[in-house]
Amino acid sequence: MGTVTKVYESHWRARNAVAALEEADIPSLRISLLATRKSVEAAETSTAATGAGVGAVVGGGAGLLASLGFLAIPGLGPIVAAGWLASTAVGAVTGGATGGIVGALIEAGEAENYAHVYSEAVRRGGTLVSVRTDETRAAEVLAILDRFDPADPDRLAEDYRKTGWDRFDPNGAI
Prior knowledge:
Layout: E1 2-8, H1 11-23, E2 31-36, H2 37-49, E3 69-73, E4 77-82, H3 84-94, H4 101-107, H5 112-123, E5 127-133, H6 135-146, H7 153-161
Antiparallel strand pairs: 1-5, 2-4, 2-5, 3-4
């Protein structure tokens, strides 16, 4: 079993990607979503301004999106999360493993450099979607996630380095 992970600069794109995965019969228990509470609240404010109900960003629907809850992960602060990655990250923190979310992503099979970029992207307001999948569906999962315009992690890393960033620091300022 492998992992396909993408990060979105728009919380709505990430939510739509999750909905599309579920519509393609990817089991919710294999999908994870992580976002800072601040980025979700900003999306919720935008949603309320356009006439949708408050709370539509956090809850609503069936499957994974209905199970979103709040957690605290060092280096990210309060996050909105659902799925296996959130529980792995919390376990990594309580177990003393390196970097909570970074450690969880590496454990799931992500390259270390991307795990740092994805974690920093969430810290900076992005929404991460990660899917555990077998080889027979990996290309399909990737195609679904790519339909919703994920950020390019190499471009993100380049942009972050321009500000002096080197790697995700769970003890760094949020």
